[in-house]
Write a structure and sequence with these properties.
With about 140 residues, the protein is α+β, with helices and mostly antiparallel strands. The chain is about 25% helix and about 40% strand.
Length: about 140
């Protein structure tokens, strides 16, 4: 997990409640960033440096995490920080509601954190921020 994502995880933990016991995934290649065994949550965290009305989710992360959550009776949350807000999307709930993620192929960098800027076509979907389950606003550090 990147340093920015760790900061977001720390902000969630401070909130307490169902987020208070989130633990960083122990495997750097894990498809989710955090897990809470007590509250049956898996969480994927993204930091966006630009504000978007619709945030992107990669199909491979969506597919693995929704399947994992279903098999293990967990809830899959997708957490996106943009500007001074954290948007929490309950992907399990959206999937069960047959949400239209508008899946499409889009040319994107193969890997963002390893400076490999070679583009490949990735399947991605979009989630309107108005469909977030929770929005947490804060004062910028």
């Amino acid at each position: 997990m990147k340093a920015e994502e760790l900061k977001i995880l720390d902000k969630l933990r401070v909130l307490g409640g169902k987020y208070g016991k989130l633990k960083q995934s122990c495997d750097e290649y894990c498809r989710y960033d955090a897990i809470c065994m007590d509250n049956f949550l898996i969480v994927e965290i993204k930091k966006r440096h630009t504000y978007y009305e619709k945030t992107m989710i990669e199909l491979d992360k969506y597919s693995f995490n929704t399947t994992f959550a279903e098999i293990h009776k967990f809830v899959f949350l997708y957490v996106v920080e943009m500007e001074n807000s954290i948007y929490i999307f309950n992907i399990t709930e959206l999937k069960n509601m047959n949400y239209n993620f508008e899946w499409s192929r889009k040319p994107m960098p193969k890997q963002t954190e390893f400076n490999n800027n070679n583009e490949i076509a990735k399947w991605v979907g979009y989630i309107n921020i108005a469909d977030s389950a929770q929005i947490i606003n804060y004062v910028k550090e």
